[in-house]
Every structure is written in structure tokens, then in C-alpha cells.
Amino acid sequence: MINMKMQIGGKAVEACGCEFSDIINPATGEFIDRVPRGTEEDAAMAVEAAWSAFSDWASTSPQQRAGILYRAAGIVRERKDELAVLLTREQGKPLTEAKNEIEGFANVLEYYCGLASSFHGDFIPIHQSGYAFTVKKPLGVCSAIIPWNMPALIMAWKISPALISGNTLVLKPASSTPLTNLTLSSILSEAGLPAGVLNIVTGPGEVVGESLVKNRKVKRISFTGETGTGKRVAELAASGMKRVTLELGGSDPMLVCDDANLEAAVAGALRGRFYNCGQICTAVKRLFVFESVAEEFIKKLEAGIRNLRVGNGLHEDVDMGPLNNRRQWEYIKELVAELKEKEEGRILTGGRVPEGSDYSKGYFFEPTLVADVSEESRLLNEEVFGPVLPVVRVKDLDEAIEKANNTCYGLGASIWTKNIDRARIGCERLNAGIIWLNQHLKVAPEVPFGGTRESGIGKENGPDALSEYLDLKTVMLKT
Length: 479
Hints:
39% helix
């Protein structure tokens, strides 16, 4: 037990209230730690700390800011193993995946360090009228609300462009996975980040999150989470005309054409659906396969799923850990039970809670493949955040695209083909913010990331994300 506290103004502080949330290992049910259940007063105090720190932080050079973030990235790499263990204990993912995520945190920090000198204005000659130039300035206090599925990586997505561009920030982590975020924040302080530049307030979204969104001193909100909550954030932010980025839910389709490399596509589907126990916004959630290759593809995929090893993420040779929390676990069990009851699909493998003492106290569910799925099934009409993959046979690319677009979401999609024309058509017609060709899931720090329709507003990552944290001021000169 670490006895974690909130981090406000560079100090570890207790909440104004006296309630705490227990952090539980989703693989074993064991108590790990507890964190304060923050209040509106705590959120306000964190905003004030960020407000007080803003002027000095904004006046530092981008190179000075980059030096601090770069040092922090180096410390994170040195402590990767211990950070990964902490992440696995609170989130559940296999240790290999946790190490990759911690590396990802460092990668994102370092990427934005490389952009430290890139955000500057332009000089604009205006014929017969003189000149104009533009100046880019940080917004002020920003706020980020992040989920539990990739807490370290998404923290980096939020804080890196905000801090490198001279803003201060208040972060609200997910209630079930705050420990890694608090530890990473401490490392940033150790690397020289001034007090108050980054503050972390733990607590429920309806209290802490809403308080941050409504606070008049917060100029920007970046939220990652489910669509319903994102709409609530947008509604609250609108009254203050705050800038908002919303990275919301997705129901990503994967299209496998009859000329695809089936071995590669099977490997892509396995990783794309079952990585992090299927708890990724851009995971493969609906699989559409041409009829002519469906039988062969499904057999190979079923065999691959049967070979996945489920267990405690801290154990060696585990491919998939538990779901992160009871709510997600109950949802997946309910979904599969309803599928069986209504006969809306044929379960080829999985579909159960695994048996045995190793699984009795955790939120485990077998990796599951479902064929012959009814169009009315919730598997095809909801964002299924868990290890259940529906596969649908289609006759051609037109039908695949039509069915893939039959959703309110538009986050990611992938098309698997050797034909450049099919790839082009898929890229043009699929409704998604990011489209992969012959791959799925991976997103580099350099790549703008975000969805369309009910999958969100705005972009994260890449140089485009910096503009979301800067005000553009125009100065006109008459000569």
C-alpha cells in the first residue's frame, strides 16, 4: 500500500472530504490502495493552483519546458518495470502490454519535446496597407479527464501538448486506475516540473469532473470516455465557450477482402480485438469477411482464439488479463447471455467465465468468437468494450462498407486487401477518423487521432494537437 494522495500545487494533499475509494486488483480482488474521493472544493483548489502557476510557466521558454519533460521521460524509462507492475495490478492487462504502455508514455513526452520550437506565428505582408503578424499564446488552465483502459498513454496524450505549449493542467484520472497517473505525476515533479503546473484530483466524474468542466478559469477540456458522458461534457462546456476535444466511443469495423493475406488478417484480428481484453476505443469490434474466404478465415481465427492464454497479467505467458471492473464484467456476461437467449448468433468458442481457482476472484471472461450474428444483436449495435468478436459474412466490398457504416460511431476502421483500388474505395467511403490498411490498432504519437460523428470532436496527437492548446492573436501594423 502506497497511501496515495491527490497532487495539488506540487504537494500530496488529503481531500476536503473524508471519503476514500479502494483500488482493487481486477485479477485477484485484492486491495491495493485507496485514494481520496475528491470534492468540488478539491477541484476548485486544484484550478487555483494551476492558475497561480500559469504566468511563470508560460513565461519559460519552450526549450526549458522540453528539458523537463525529456528528463521525466528518461526517469520513466528507468522505472519502466516497476511502473508496469503497478499498472497491471490496478488495470489488469498483461505485464508485456503494461510495459508497452509505459514506453508509450515516454515516447509521447519525447515527441512533443521535439516540437518545442515549432509553435510560432507568421509574418504576413499586406500590400499597400503595411504588415501583420500572428502570435501564438497558451490558453491558461486546461483540464483533462481520462479513462481506465489506457491510463498512462492517454495521460501522455493530454499533458504533453498542454504543458509544452505553456499551459497548466488539472487531470482527473479514472476512479479504478489512478495510481499509475499519480506516480507519473510525481516523476514529472522530480524532473523539475514546477509546483501547480500539473495537478491531479481523484474522485467521481459527476463531482470532480463536472466541477472542472464548469469552472470559469478552465479554458479547455480534453475528455476521453464513452459517448454519453462526452455529450454531457460538451453541454457543460458550451455555457463557458470552452474549447473541447472529445475522444469518445467506437465500434470499429475490420473488412477482410477475398485477396487479403489471411494469416496477417487473422493476426490483426486477434490483436485488434483481444489486446487489453478488448478494452480499447479503436479495438476491432465488428468483423466483416468476404464469403469466398470466410470459412477458411474463421477456422484460422477460431484456432488462434483458442490458443490465447487468459490469466493474471502478472503471470508469465498470459495473453489476456481480466476486464478492469465489475461493471464491465457484468455487461459482457449479460450481453452474451442475451445473445444465447435470443439466438442472435452462434458462439464458436468462448462465451463463458473461465473455471478454476485462478479465476474465481477476478473479472475474467473467455475470448469469444460469434458467427451468424443477427443485425439486431447488441453486438453489432453497441460499443462492446470486452473480449467478444462478432463475425459477419458479406458478398463484396460494397456490402461490407454499407454494413460497416451502419453505426452512430466513426472512430477507426481497417481494410485488408492487396488491391489498391479496393483500398482507395475503402478509405474514401468508410466513415472513420482513422483508417488502417492491412493493420489495425497502432497509433504513433506523430499521427492525428480522433473520430467523426458520435465518436468525438477534435484531434489528439501530432502537431495538430498543439493548435488546440494555443490562442492565435493577430497584430496589424500600418507603415
